[in-house]
Amino acid sequence: MTYQEAYRKLEEYGQLHVLKYYDELDETQKQQLLQQVDETDFSILKNLQHRDAAFQTSEIAPMPAMELDEINRRRDEFTGIGLDAIRQGKVAAVLLAGGMGTRLGSDDPKCMYDIGLTHPVYIMQRLVENLMDVVRQAGVYVPFFIMTSDKNHDKTVSFMEKMNYFGYDPSMIWFFKQEMAPAADYEGKVYMEEKGRISTSPNGNGGWFLSMKRCGLIDKVHELGIEWLNTFAVDNVLQRIADPVFVGATIASGCASGAKTVRKAARDERVGVMCLADGKPSIIEYYEMTPELMDAKNEKGDPAYNFGVIMNYLFREKDLERIVDEVLPVHIVEKKIPCLDENGNPVSPEEPNGYKFEQLVLDMVRELDTCLPVEVDRAREFAPIKNKTGIDSVESARELCRQNGIEL
Ligand code: UTP
């Protein structure tokens, strides 16, 4: 892209400040900035004008989950169906690890975080160990796809190499990168992270299927005969991956997707909750829950919106193909965004200073029309690490690991 073309594109979106330091850049930096302007989708910034409109216009109703008593009654049946599918190579794991993990405050990818006390226990190690339980039970390796982003790809890949993939079969692991989106201040002006570089951040965990498709990995999925993709977050160190019971229950239900859920610990717990939005299975975010929804009861007298998602979903691949061209909603998330101050010096803000734009995996559930929410025991399966201390932290996850007999 030429300077004139970049100027016109930036002018159209009200972003001419991107060229403020252009004359100070050397030739290579100039070319890199023009290329970045060419590749950046500034139209995403328009979402600031109609924030969170989707849920405001939807009619919300409760969605029951398959509860633990039923699962326990049918455990053998579900385990059999799940193990069969895994043994036939129909189930793959997809780790969504492209996030920045800013709340944890480490410069390294979150999967490299060491939660050990007496010896190193990395978050990635815990995930691989959990997946290995299923590998041992099924007697086959589960294909394992790992999503990273521009910001953490190289470190993640070299960490896994250095750690010998924590004993996993490297020929069954594939890495891929997700796409990036610009980050902006509260007025919708994109930040610059360097004089010749627009601030970008990973575009949320919802773009994983499209990213897999674009890099050719969905061809690999077809070649291997994979029918189900189990996507999960990096930060839950008790995460059960390719869990035969969950896989079996979802397959038996005939639904296009399944969502692991936990019974909420408090009416205002900060988890997204399964619901029906305009009759379709959806997840309502905690900040969208009104007091009426929090206090609503079902016919058993239990809270009607009581099953929080833990970012562990199973998707039928051929149904994802059906919705791949649907445009997922863009969520606007307030975050700390490294940027330049008014004198052009780089700063790392202590407090949120703007917006990132993210598509979320939970919106894929809605697009797919059918979903089985499956209750799991939160004390055994839910130990998310979002923060250093307090709720959902390294401390709370360590305690949950201890309760589950995991030595740290
Ligand atoms: P979070 O919502 O906790 O976001 O991610 P985050 O960016 O990692 O953390 P903070 O908010 O900056 O502290 C939930 C899961 O989604 C993945 C994360 O890696 C994590 O597994 N994720 C998030 C992506 O893969 N890509 C993204 O763009 C965002």
Concise summary:
This protein has 408 residues and is of the alpha/beta class. It has 15 helices and 18 strands.
Can you put this structure into words, describing what you see?
With 408 residues, the chain is an alpha/beta fold. It contains 15 helices and 18 strands. It has helices spanning 3-12, 27-39, 53-56, 68-73, 75-87, 123-138, 153-162, 208-214, 217-224, 244-253, 291-295, 317-323, 362-368, 378-381, 394-403, and strands at residues 60-62, 91-96, 144-148, 173-177, 180-182, 192-194, 197-198, 200-202, 228-233, 257-263, 273-277, 280-284, 307-316, 331-335, 339-340, 346-347, 354-358, 371-375. The protein has a 7-stranded mixed beta sheet with strand order 4-3-2-9-13-10-18, sandwiched between helices. Strand 2, helix 6 and strand 3 form a beta-alpha-beta unit. The longest helix has 16 residues, at 123-138. Bound molecules: uridine 5'-triphosphate.
Features of this protein?
single chain, 408 residues, alpha/beta, Spore Coat Polysaccharide Biosynthesis Protein SpsA, Chain A, 3-stranded antiparallel β-sheet, 18 strands, globular
